[in-house]
């Protein structure tokens, strides 16, 4: 991901090398190139406009500096603005004062929710928590089984519907899962919920019902970074339909252009909290805007 954007930006900066001072024309040309690079990477237009506007304004105010030449100063400005659109500071999970902390996952089918649930559980376990996974995705035929298999691989217990345990009713399963965690002293509950292939009123209603039943401490919207501009529309639809506290980007290991990843935080105003970049359960970490910007500009 971001390979093309990285290359394009590197070319832009190369053109500035050796310049002693940036003229208005240099700044305009650089801004145009950055605009094209971002649009080609599939970054949403409003985000591109804001980004380029900010870079231009700051570039005009650049003083001749002993420490940094103009090219380096522009790189620094672009870096800072990338960090800003990616959400600024690293946003960490908020844990409930009275455990269990309830984390609910929402997102489209195929976004990587079930995989992510197990990754997050393993990550939390490695941080010293005792998570419980709850299989409340009763829409996709194999989702419960997949969570059980992944939970086993992660060494994390899975609460799943059984006869008499709320079969067919995801709200009852979610509620039962939180009760089970309380009873068995798990300090974090991760509730996997059902998606659909596209935005769908029934899915949103079900997610709202689960949210209202378990009052999560964190609702995380899971989005496949490979789906391009659609990610922004889906993110907005879930924000309006369910609401969430943070975003998880999945499939960052793919070779897509990466614009979705660069647009979602800025468009929704919600921070990207985690990044998932592979099919292995350990391909997962907190999302650090500064590190991601650094990777793009590397
Ligand atoms: P769900 O329908 O949202 O629960 O999605 P799944 O967790 O079943 O994931 C859908 C597909 O994407 C599966 O084949 C996963 O193995 C794959 N997947 C999930 N996360 C990643 C990731 O970060 N990178 C890659 N390459 N594949 C992923």
UniProtKB/TrEMBL annotation:
It comes from the Bacteria. The keyword RNA-binding applies. Its main location: cytoplasm. Its EC number is 3.6.5.4. The keyword Membrane does not apply. It catalyses: GTP + H2O = GDP + phosphate + H(+). Residues 271-284 form the SRP54-type proteins GTP-binding domain. It is found in: Cytoplasm. GTP binds at residues 107-114, 192-196, 250-253. Keywords: Cytoplasm, GTP-binding, Hydrolase, Nucleotide-binding, Ribonucleoprotein, RNA-binding, Signal recognition particle. Part of the signal recognition particle protein translocation system, which is composed of SRP and FtsY. Composed of three domains: the N-terminal N domain, which is responsible for interactions with the ribosome, the central G domain, which binds GTP, and the C-terminal M domain, which binds the RNA and the signal sequence of the RNC. Involved in targeting and insertion of nascent membrane proteins into the cytoplasmic membrane. Binds to the hydrophobic signal sequence of the ribosome-nascent chain (RNC) as it emerges from the ribosomes. The SRP-RNC complex is then targeted to the cytoplasmic membrane where it interacts with the SRP receptor FtsY. Belongs to the GTP-binding SRP family. SRP54 subfamily. This is Signal recognition particle protein. It comes from Nocardioides jiangsuensis. The gene is ffh.
